[in-house]
Amino acid sequence: MRALGSGHSFSLVADSTGELVRLDGLPSMVEIDTARSTVTVAAGMRYADVAVELHRNGFALPNMASLPHISVAGSCATGTHGSGDGQRCLSASVSGLELVGPDGDLVELRRGDDGFPGAVVALGALGVVTRLTLDVAPAFEVAQSVRLGVSLDDVAARFDEVFGSAYSVSAFTDWRSGEAAVWLKCRTEPTWGGGRAAEEQVHPVPGMDPDFCTVQLGRPGPWHERLPHFRPELTPSAGQELQSEWFLPREAAGAGIAVVQGLAEQIAPVLHISEIRTVRGDDLWLSPAYGRDSVTFHFTWRDDPEGVLPVVAELQQRLLPLGARPHWGKLSTTPAPEVIASYERALDFARLAQELDPEGKFGNSFVDALFPRG
Prior knowledge:
By secondary structure, the protein is an alpha+beta fold. Helices cover about 20% and strands about 25% of the residues. It contains 11 helices and 18 strands. The strands form 4 sheets. Strands 10, 11, 12, 13, 14, 15, 16, 17 and 18 form a 9-stranded antiparallel beta sheet that branches. Strands 3-4-8-6-7 form a 5-stranded antiparallel beta sheet, with helices on one face.
């Protein structure tokens, strides 16, 4: 049995030959605890819907992903993230969760409990999560602006300056042009001004309608209307697509950029757009940012598996020596033993899964390859 979120994963993490359980039919619930600065939500809710209710009550999430359409449970289970030197994966905001175990039993875990760091980014392998409690902060405003024509060489050479210049920073590139568009989401004035300022709304993918994107041009607005790249009432798309992403140690940013630039001519024909972001490290056992501040390289590919998979394989071969960890919800062909070898708490997670789901009711081929049962 596997649980489904919003269906935005490009890997086989939610695949099953057994039963699939959707969570979007659970009753909506947003319970704010002002004394503890937390909110408890139904697992199948979209971040967009949670954010509106939080903002109405004067609260905010510290971070959001590019897409506000994704479900809270699915995002946390796969280590999904936004961007920002000080911002951790979305799952790092989880302070408690409730899940249904293999016998229909309810299991509640709280931050500080044994095994809790293994239960948040859990790939659906421990049970069906039904509720999550998230840390919240006071509501705030963000202004978003875009700098165009920024040299990738400049981004690599001044990486800390560029990515430390705003609350959240993303660099979009096709790699072949040698240039990037840098998106700055600021709570105060940005401290870096490379390239030239965009004078009208832009979309990450050239030629796509910028009306799908959240407001730019430096106009301040509520946090949940600026931190995502895209508006919740519109579904952005470049057509049918595939996606891959790798987390590298932050200190490998320059080397990672050089590796991908070296493959630009192979990447470009099958690429819609690529995005570079930063993520603060955390202590969640299966988080791709576990134990280290990270830089991520995201690729939105054309829907051409025959053309894309050889490029993915070549990227993996060159990025893995730099410490790359694939995003759990994205396309990767790295063998499971090689993937899990970079997670020092993998055995602890395997023991936790054996304890909570001894018969492997919540396994699938994806999970079982990572954590084979003896």
